[in-house]
Amino acid sequence: MSTQTRLSGLHKKLAFALAVVLILLGWQIAAWILPDFLMPDVPVVMKRLWEEMQSESFRAALWGSLIRLGSGYGAALAFGIGFGLIGAVLFFFREVLKSAIIILQSIPSIAWVPLFLIMMGFGNLPIIVVVAIAAFFPAALSVMNATESVQKVHVAAARVMGASRWDLLRRVYLPAVMPELITGAQLAFGNAWRALISAEMLIGFGKGLGRSLSYAGETADMVGVMTSILTIAILAPLIDQLVLENLKHRVLRYQYV
């Protein structure tokens, strides 16, 4: 790894740490200005979070959310990447899918909740489907847009050598779109995470971080509200940096040499 790359990574970490400090400082200033029952102090919420982490209910809520997130996000990536690659060799399919995505992605994912509740009833399934819808659009679009930039000379050369459509997808398109695919996966994760919390708050089924936040608001427990918000804010970048960013570096390691 070059010195420039190491410095760039260090600068990113310093920038992230500074952003965290500024957010906490702004929060604490607001707590000093507002009454305690409206905005609790940062140390009070930190203490509550530590206590909650020791409880079984907190762990149940966390695992419930992560299982729903993993199910919906995983399905979205599988279908998004699959359809995006199919669109590379089936032009008409790509145009139809892209037009459908442009139309449907203008609808907030949370707007589908009433429909899915009627169709599927209360349970994990409507939340998972909402998460999958939110993550599918950026995943599919990123792959489809990337396939359009694949050099035609590479495709033509593969066809001359007798490559089938499956060979084109596996040996030409997939390696070429990998950088955009990983970026699309990170964008899809952000959409999936926000859809998960919103759906859990609205549906109010079972254990989940969104449900915990909603319940704290309903009972006017502002320390609980801020604790849930803090948990949500911590988990998203942790998952993104520890899982997705590491995956990005492993898959695209030739770019970080």
UniProtKB/TrEMBL annotation:
<dbReference type="GO" id="GO:0055085">
    <property type="term" value="P:transmembrane transport"/>
</dbReference>
<dbReference type="InterPro" id="IPR000515">
    <property type="entry name" value="MetI-like"/>
</dbReference>
<feature type="domain" description="ABC transmembrane type-1">
    <location>
        <begin position="62"/>
        <end position="244"/>
    </location>
</feature>
<feature type="transmembrane region" description="Helical">
    <location>
        <begin position="100"/>
        <end position="119"/>
    </location>
</feature>
<dbReference type="InterPro" id="IPR035906">
    <property type="entry name" value="MetI-like_sf"/>
</dbReference>
<feature type="transmembrane region" description="Helical">
    <location>
        <begin position="222"/>
        <end position="244"/>
    </location>
</feature>
<keyword id="KW-1133">Transmembrane helix</keyword>
<protein>
    <submittedName>
        <fullName>NitT/TauT family transport system permease protein</fullName>
    </submittedName>
</protein>
<dbReference type="Pfam" id="PF00528">
    <property type="entry name" value="BPD_transp_1"/>
</dbReference>
<feature type="transmembrane region" description="Helical">
    <location>
        <begin position="14"/>
        <end position="34"/>
    </location>
</feature>
<feature type="transmembrane region" description="Helical">
    <location>
        <begin position="72"/>
        <end position="93"/>
    </location>
</feature>
<feature type="transmembrane region" description="Helical">
    <location>
        <begin position="168"/>
        <end position="189"/>
    </location>
</feature>
<keyword id="KW-0813">Transport</keyword>
<keyword id="KW-0812">Transmembrane</keyword>
<feature type="transmembrane region" description="Helical">
    <location>
        <begin position="125"/>
        <end position="147"/>
    </location>
</feature>
<keyword id="KW-0472">Membrane</keyword>
<dbReference type="GO" id="GO:0005886">
    <property type="term" value="C:plasma membrane"/>
</dbReference>
<comment type="similarity">
    <text>Belongs to the binding-protein-dependent transport system permease family.</text>
</comment>
<keyword id="KW-1003">Cell membrane</keyword>
